[in-house]
Design goal:
There is one protein chain. With 639 residues, the protein is α/β, with parallel strands linked by helices. The chain is built from 26 helices and 19 strands.
């Protein structure tokens, strides 16, 4: 067994010799005393450590677990904390079993259930329990107002599409859309009037079945005498609005104007409005003329039973565009994000991720790579930006280093990096910003007073390519950069992919904290598109249409289609019907969320799934397919 060289390897060897155990023995065969010694240290038991010639001293072994805990608590680096978190897992408290209450509190029952048991119910189950709860007339009189308030609040949570959540669900596990709808439900209980409510895409993560309930809730807020302003891309929400304000005509520098304002019908009639064009049917995301047919290669997830999944077996065809659908809480994320992705990364990339409960996954040999393109930020500090994440900054720096002026000064590409000393501003160490700690408030970033936010020193900024220095190049939008570097193939390859995914408006040096989740996801997608693929990759995207306009979705589908045409597999978890109708294969879970979900309802082409009566997705999918068919016939007749 090769344990490497150096201080740590020597220390462990001498530890084993001192306490008489063999490091070549498999871990599960080591005596418990030896395992405890390695993990928790030799407190109170010293041994002699030898180092070099004639150097020795008595010492105690700290133990791997203690060392890990000390390192985790002492580090200020977010990346290191994330690294250490890989070695931690949550387990229920051995005293209370995860209930978090004392035995006396756990002993009190109402309707035959303790507070812990009540909190473990889903919102839907809690409503049913309260409705069927049998209590005496005296108790009913005492609890009348309490029960009225509880039922009212649970009803609000149901109405915003959260019936599948358990009452004790940790806030940290909620999506942004779920958190926003919980806050909305709390506002419904306040019965305030004369208030302006502003909601940013409340339909995120919401199935079409639940969309109507959410809209009814928003209308009730309006009818109480409030104003409800919603930033939204959802078609049904826009059609149900009393007034639409459409911005455009494009994105970034090409936008910022009010293109149309009025009732939905007035905006639909406005020829200048791209949104109105899609709402009216002048523009459309068309159903593919022909769908790709699955081949023999497939992934098979057998016996998936994590969370609410009911021991399901799911076949995922490879080499096609697959959509996983179902109402909120049906088990989509559990199947894909908690079982499939961790299992594949463990098998293909030797990760430490542990997949959730399932029997086996067959067909992994057909893949050589799995990539999860999620909406997490591409970086957490102003230092990270699209140009560094997509690696396009490397050829840009090489381009600057090849200029006559740079060669005269002897500058290399490293001179134009803000991550190393030499060309960067040392006052801000290349950040361009200074962090001001506000203690009890969020930290504030202010421009560096030395470089003025340019990140580089004056000597570096003297070098220009086509009239622009490195700081000015980072201020260019993708569209402007494409014109500036039109003759550079390596640079254009990355910039073109950013343009293809609808990000022509973002700036190359735009700091990552200012990017939305949807923008971050598309930047990740662009980076993958710019690479030379093997044709045996599985791409996983969780609701990639979040924050996207109809026209952006159209562009995104073209990009995903390119990946599939190259032989890869694209799997999306999605509620958006324009994406689902464009897929080659649909896997629908349900029929409901939470305990009433977790079943495999249907698999097949969108047309086949649309005929399944038990599926809520099918009802809405059938409508959108028929609408697309009528529009296609209408275009042919008009042509």
């Amino acid at each position: 067994m090769n344990r490497g060289e150096g201080w740590t390897a020597d220390l462990v060897d001498q530890l084993a010799a001192a306490f008489k155990f063999d490091l070549d023995t498999p871990w599960d065969k080591l005596p418990k005393q030896a395992r405890d010694l390695i993990l928790y240290g030799s407190e109170g038991k010293e041994f002699t450590m030898k180092w070099g010639e004639g150097h020795r001293w008595r010492m105690e072994w700290e133990g791997l677990v203690n060392k890990l805990m000390r390192s985790f608590k002492s580090t200020a680096s977010e990346s290191m904390r994330q690294y250490y978190m890989k070695f931690f897992s949550d387990k229920p408290c051995p005293t209370c079993g995860g209930a978090r209450l004392r035995p006396e509190s756990r002993a009190v029952k109402v309707g035959g259930k303790t507070l812990v048991e009540l909190a473990s119910l889903t919102i839907q189950d809690a409503v049913e329990f309260l409705g069927a709860m049998g209590i005496s007339a005296t108790d009913a009189k005492i609890a009348a107002e309490l029960l009225k308030e509880i039922r009212s609040r649970l009803g609000f949570l149901q109405n915003v599409g959260l019936a599948y959540l358990t009452l004790d669900r940790s806030a940290s596990t909620l999506s942004g859309g779920e958190s926003q709808r919980i806050r909305l439900a709390s506002q419904m209980g306040s019965e305030l009037t004369g208030v302006i409510y502003i909601l940013d895409e409340p339909s995120i993560g919401l199935h079409q079945r639940d969309n109507g309930r959410l809209l009814a809730t928003l209308k009730r807020l309006r009818d109480l005498g409030n104003t409800v302003i919603v930033v939204e891309h959802d078609e049904e929400t826009m059609e149900d609005a009393d007034w639409l304000v459409d911005f455009g005509p494009g994105a970034g520098e090409l936008g910022g104007q009010i293109v149309a304002s009025g009732t939905p019908k007035q905006v639909m009639a406005n020829e200048q409005s791209l949104t109105g064009g899609y709402l009216s049917g002048r523009e459309e995301i068309e159903v593919p003329e022909a769908r790709r047919k699955p081949g023999k290669s497939k992934l098979v997830i057998e016996g998936a039973k994590a969370n609410n999944l009911k021991n399901v077996t799911v076949e995922i065809p490879l080499g096609v565009f697959v959509a996983v659908t179902g109402v909120s809480g049906a088990g989509k994320s559990t199947l894909v994000n908690e079982i499939l992705f961790p299992a594949l990364t463990r098998a293909l990339h030797q990760s430490r991720d542990v997949p959730a409960a399932h029997k086996v996954i067959r067909g992994i040999e057909h893949l050589d790579k799995v990539i999860d393109i999620d909406q997490r930020p591409i970086g957490r500090t102003p230092r990270s930006n699209p140009s560094t994440y997509t690696k396009v900054f490397d050829p840009i720096r090489e381009c600057l280093a090849q200029t006559q002026e740079a060669r005269t000064y002897g500058y290399t590409p490293g001179r134009f990096s803000f991550n190393v000393k030499g060309g960067r501003c040392e006052a801000c160490e290349g950040d361009g910003l200074k962090q001001v700690e506000m203690h009890f408030l969020a930290d504030v970033y202010v421009p560096c007073e030395v470089c003025g936010g340019k990140r580089f020193n004056d000597a570096t900024l003297r070098v220009r390519y086509k009239g622009k220095n490195v700081a000015e190049i980072l201020e260019l939008s993708v569209r402007e950069a494409m014109q500036h570097f039109a003759v550079h193939r390596d640079i254009m390859r990355v910039l073109t992919t950013l343009d293809d995914v609808g990000l022509s408006y973002i700036r190359l040096g735009q700091s990552s904290p200012t990017l939305s989740g949807g923008e971050a996801q598309r930047i990740k997608l662009a980076r993958e598109l710019a690479k030379v693929g093997t044709g045996r990759t599985l791409y996983i995207l969780d609701e990639p249409t979040t924050g996207l306009h109809f026209d952006d979705i159209k562009k995104l589908l073209k990009v995903l289609s390119r990946l599939v045409d190259a032989g890869n597999t694209v799997l999306v978890i999605e509620h958006n019907l324009d994406v689902i109708k464009s897929a080659d294969w649909v896997i629908d879970l349900g029929p409901e969320g939470g305990a009433a979900g977790g079943e495999l309802l249907a698999t097949g082409t969108p047309e086949e799934v649309a005929e399944v009566s038990r599926s809520h997705t099918a009802k809405y999918l059938k409508h959108v397919l028929e609408k697309s068919r009528r529009m296609r016939i209408g275009r042919r007749v008009a042509g």
